[in-house]
Amino acid sequence: MVTLRSQKSSPNYSWPIGLIVLSGLIASSGCTPSPEIETDTDIQVPKIEAAEAIEQAPTFELSLLGEDPEVCKIVENSFDPATGWGRKNGFIDSRFQTAADQKYYSGIATAFPFNPTALNVEGELNVELVLVDWEDLPGNDADREMYIQNVEKFAEFYWMVSEHNLQWNIHVSEGWFRLPGSYADFYMNPDDEGQHHQFAPKKQNLYDAITDASDSRTDYTNVDLVIPAWPTAKTVSNQGPHEFNIRWNAAMYTDEKTIYNIAGAGDWFLKHQDYGGPWIYYVHETGHMLGIPHQAKEDANDLFGQYPYNEYFWLNSPFNGFEIMGGQDGAIKTINGWLRWVAGWLDDSQVICVTQDQIEDEIFALHPINDVNGETEALVIKLSDTMAIVVESRRWDERFDRAIVHSRDGIIAYTVDATKGSSQGSQALLSPRDITKWLEVNHWRHSEELDANFCEGDFVDVAGLMIGLESSQEGVDYVRVQKSTNNFPVDPPEIGTEGGVNRVESTCIHGPGSDNPPRK
C-alpha cells in the first residue's frame, strides 16, 4: 500500500508492505454404499509392495563451542588521513549551524561499536517520493508506476535485511510537480552529483526548484529521506544526485526543516533496469545514510593505468558480486551478516562466536541470512583483536537477486579487518578455488565477479583452519571447521599477481561465457 498525499493538513503515514493471509475451505466427501457383492465371487486384493527407501539427508553432531558473542565483537581501529574519518580521530562537520546540531562522526562503522547517524536503524522512517517534470519533459503514468514499484522494493528489502527491525513508510506526490524552464537547464554530469565535492551549485539549483514547486503541498515535517524522480525519456542526471546526513554539499531547505538525506537515480540505473533498476541505488545510498560502510577499496582505483586490471581487481572490490554495499549491479543483492550484526539487526543469539584456538573438528549449522529470524545466521571465528573470519549461508532470493548460471546456494566465508574503515576493503571474500580467477557474470559495466561460493565439498585452508561446506540441505547448511597444519595467510594475493577467467567446471561454476545470456 502506498499513501498518496498532497495536503499539509492531512499527513497519513502507513506501512507499505502488507501481510495477506489466505484461507482455504476444507471440503469433506462421503462414501456411497457399493452395490451388494455376491459371496461366491473371488475378490483379488492387490499385494502392497514395500515403499522404496527414501534417501535420508545426513545428520550431524553439532559443536558445543560457543563463546559470549561479546568476545567476537572486534573493535574498529581505523583512520583515513585524507578525510579525518576513523576511530582514532573524531570528525566534526562544521556546516551544522548550532552547537546543539554539532555531532562527532568517527566514520561509518566497519566493526564494533556501531556508529549511529541522524537516522535510526530500528523503528519507522518516512520516505517521500517527489515526482517532478518540465514542460518539455512531461511526466507519465508508466514512469510514475515504475518509481513507485522501485521504492516499494527498496522498503521491502530493508524490512527483510533488518530482520523486521526497520520499516520505511512510503509517501508519493499525488501528481508531477512542474519545474520552471527546460529539463536541459538542470542537466548534471557525475562531477555535479556527488556529495564529496566542496560546492555543488547545479545540484543545489535542482533541490531549490524541487522545494519551491512542492513545499506548499507537501508536509516535510516527518520526512527522513527524499527521493526526487523525473521522467526517463531524456537525461537529467547521469548517475544520480545524493546526500548523506553525515556528508553533504547541498540540501533541501523546506519550510519545515532542512533535509540532508536525498537520493535521486540517474540514467546509470534508469537505463539498465534488467540488472536491477533504481531500487538498488536507493538501497545502497540509504545504507550509507544509516551508517553502513562502502564495501570497496577505493585507493586501489589509483592503480588504474599502473597495472593491468587483472592484476588487482580482487583488491579493488573484495566483496564483488555478493554485497549490495559494494557492487550495486551484482547478481546477488543483500547485506552480509557481519554488517547486519554490527548494525544490531542480527541478534547476538543468531551468531555463533568461537576463537581460533578452540577449533579441533567442529560442525556448525547455519540458516540462510535472508530467512528472517533464522535460528543461527552467522559463524564468527575470532583470529585476533582486529581480525575475524565470518561464515554465512546464502540462498538465491528471487525477490531481489538476478538469475545467473553460477550457483549462489551454499556458504560464503570472508575476513573482517577492524584496522580498515569504510571504502578501505575492510571485508574480503575467501575463495574455495582461486580469488584471482573471476567468473564471467553480465553487468552493464563489466563481466567479472569474484568466485567465492562454496557448494558441498568445497573448502578453504587459511589461518590454520580448514573451513568447508559439509552438507547443504533444505534451509540449512552444515559447516565443518577443522584445525589445519597449514597457516596460509588471510590476506589476499598482492598487486601484480596475474588473474584471469576461471575455467574450472564444478557444480557451482561454469566455464567462460556461460552467463551469456543469463538463464531464465
Quick recap:
This protein has helices at residues 141-161, 190-193, 201-214, 267-270, 278-290, 313-316, 337-343, and strands spanning 3-5, 79-80, 85-86, 91-92, 104-105, 123-133, 166-173, 177-178, 225-229, 242-243, 252-253, 258-259, 262-263, 351-355, 361-366, 378-382, 387-394, 410-417, 427-430, 437-440, 448-450, 459-462, 465-473, 476-483, 500-501. The chain is an alpha/beta fold.
Largest sheet data = 5 strands, parallel
Radius of gyration: 27 Å
Q: What's the mean pLDDT score?
A: 84
Strand content: 15-25%
**Which term fits the overall shape?**
globular
Question: Given the helix and strand composition, which structural class is it?
Answer: alpha/beta
Percent of residues in helices comes to: 10-25%
**Count of β-strands:** 25
* Low-confidence residue ranges: 1-53, 87-106
Number of helices: 7
First and last CA, distance: 29 Å
Keywords:
single chain; 520 residues; alpha/beta; 5-stranded parallel sheet; 25 strands
Question: How would you describe what is shown here?
Answer:
The chain is of the alpha/beta class. 13% of the residues lie in helices and 21% in strands. It is built from seven helices and 25 strands. The protein has helices at residues 141-161, 190-193, 201-214, 267-270, 278-290, 313-316, 337-343; strands spanning 3-5, 79-80, 85-86, 91-92, 104-105, 123-133, 166-173, 177-178, 225-229, 242-243, 252-253, 258-259, 262-263, 351-355, 361-366, 378-382, 387-394, 410-417, 427-430, 437-440, 448-450, 459-462, 465-473, 476-483, 500-501. Strands 1, 6, 7, 8 and 9 form a five-stranded parallel β-sheet that branches. The protein has a five-stranded mixed β-sheet with strand order 14-16-17-18-19, covered by helices on one side. A hairpin with a 2-residue loop joins β22 and β23. It is globular, with a radius of gyration of 27 Å. The protein starts with a strand and ends in a 19-residue tail after the last strand. The model is unreliable at 1-53 and 87-106 (pLDDT under 50).
